[in-house]
Amino acid sequence: MAKRIFLGGGRPEPAYYTLLGLSTQQKDYHLSFLLNKLPEFKFTRFEDLLVNIPEEEEPAHFSLYTCFDEEGFNTFTLISNRNSNQYLVPSLRQTDYLMIIEGPFKKQKKEELIKALRTIPNMLLATEINPSDIKQFESLITDLELHIMKSKKATIPNT
Predict the structure, then answer these.
(1) Cβ-based neighbours of 81, under 8 Å, separated by 6 or more
(2) Rounded to 5, what percent of the chain is helix, strand, coil?
(3) 117-138: b or e for each residue (b if 16 or more CB lie within 10 Å)?
(4) In whole angstroms, what is the distance from residue 118 CA to residue 103 CA?
(5) pLDDT above 90 coverage of the chain, percent
(6) E-strand spans in the chain?
């Protein structure tokens, strides 16, 4: 008799994501510039992430920057947590930016990154956040992945 193998749903595994919360008064473009001075980063700007907020008629815009680390097999995404009066993740109101790290990320490397982030001028807070503590984390990851795929597809010329 043949064995059946069931694959899990399409849900992202929280273990493959590291989430950092950053609090700073820096504008997104200036923070990206300062992050790019660190040797491991080369952030580039993507189109703003549009998120439908239930109470609002128009979708909210949140700035988005990404960086790909081919050596460590990581993708770094820097996204603003607030715009003029709305929050991407309302439970993290004290956090101005979220840095989502996709892929394997060792504890020592994470600690070194947090230490380096804290050296950035006007960085008030750089801390790890448990992704499972955010109830909308999975939908945020899905929205980000779809948005980045659309943005990449739009920049690839037709052949």
Answers:
(1) 21, 62, 87, 88, 89, 92, 95, 96, 97, 98
(2) 30, 30, 40
(3) beebeebeebebbebeebeebb
(4) 22
(5) 39
(6) 17-24, 44-51, 60-69, 74-80, 97-102, 123-129
From residue 36, how far is each of 26, 65, 66, 78 by CA, in Å?
14, 11, 11, 12
Q: What are the beta bridge partners of residue 64?
A: 46, 79
Please name the helix (run of DSSP H) or strand (run of DSSP E) that holds residue 142, with its range, or none: helix 137-155
5-14, 57-66, 73-82, 134-143: the lowest-pLDDT one: 5-14
Domain locations along the chain:
25-153
Instruction: Please say if the pLDDT value at position 117 is more than 80.
Output: yes
Three-state DSSP at 52 gives coil
> From CA 96, how far away is CA 159, in angstroms rounded?
40
Q: How far apart are CA 44 and CA 96, in angstroms?
A: 19
Digit-coded pLDDT (tens) for 79-113: 999 887 888 888 888 999 999 999 888 889 899 99
- Determine the residue type at 102: E
